[in-house]
Design goal:
single chain; mainly alpha
């Protein structure tokens, strides 16, 4: 009988996907067993799953991933893009939503802006590191090496969508964001990851910024159809930016787009 450790070694990506969902859905599983109510996804699921998979691969693989997690060195341009890009998307969407009938944020609502900084820190740790430490820092370089951009995107976006499935079913996340938004967002992160030479922390900062100004700020200022429309606009923005991310690099992009060094999985028979 094949041991669990050997199964994980031979199927790292599949094992990562299963474990990420298992840990990510842990609050829902607990609620189904009668422990707690109104559950949410556990954002630390992907990074814990990556840790377990790499621990089974050995110290070399685990050390490679840990060095990547600790590396936050990137140019100010990339970090400015990771912060200002998501903020600009939300501001434009709020204005478009207003043109389509939604009220603008009131001064009282905007007066909660001091909460943005602590919210961002929490989002960076739980969502940025917790999720992207798995999706991007672990799985992206491995899948890019084996399957190229579109293969990696297809696999990662599918796993990301499935991971968010309980949120969609419970109504905590609109289906259009869960399906279209997650798929497009994954492609954007992969392109930024490749263009920056494998700097995963940009995905962590970008994801944290999106959530800080999105569900924790601007989305709380509208309700009903206006909030639903804002979700549609956000998904549309993701899709548009994903297309731009594929088109814009052009000649200049070919000079900087390079595959990052993958995490070294030491088992020679490793496969997805």
């Amino acid at each position: 009988m094949t041991s669990p450790v050997r199964l994980i070694r031979e199927h790292p990506v599949l094992s990562f996907a299963v474990l990420a969902c298992l840990f990510g859905w842990s609050y829902y599983i607990a609620a189904a067993l009668g422990f707690g109510s109104d559950p949410d996804n556990n954002p630390l699921g992907p990074v814990v799953a990556a840790l377990i998979v790499l621990a089974c691969q050995g110290r070399v693989s685990l050390g490679e991933w840990w060095r990547r997690l600790r590396n936050w060195r990137a140019s100010p341009f990339w970090y400015a893009l990771a912060v200002l890009g998501p903020l600009a998307v939300h501001l434009i969407n709020v204005l478009i939503n207003h043109v389509l009938g939604a009220p603008l944020p009131t001064s009282a609502q905007l007066g909660h802006w001091p909460e943005i900084a602590p919210t961002f820190v929490i989002m960076l740790v739980l969502v940025g590191i917790g999720e992207e430490g798995g999706w991007i820092a672990f799985a992206a370089p491995l899948l890019l090496r084996r399957h190229g951009l579109f293969g990696a995107w297809a696999i990662l976006s599918a796993v990301r969508i499935v991971w968010h499935l309980p949120l969609m079913i419970s109504g905590h996340m609109p289906w259009v964001i869960g399906l279209v938004g997650n798929a497009a967002f994954q492609l954007i992160l992969l392109q930024i990851f490749r263009a920056s030479g494998g700097q995963w922390s940009l995905a962590a900062v970008g994801h944290a910024t999106l959530n800080t100004f999105g569900g924790s700020f601007f989305f709380t200022m509208v309700s009903g159809p206006d909030q639903d429309r804002l979700g549609l606009l956000l998904s549309g923005a993701y899709a548009l930016l994903a297309i731009i991310a594929l088109i814009v690099p052009g000649r200049r992009g070919h000079a900087v787009m390079r595959e990052p060094t993958p995490v070294d999985l030491t088992t020679p028979t490793t496969r997805v």
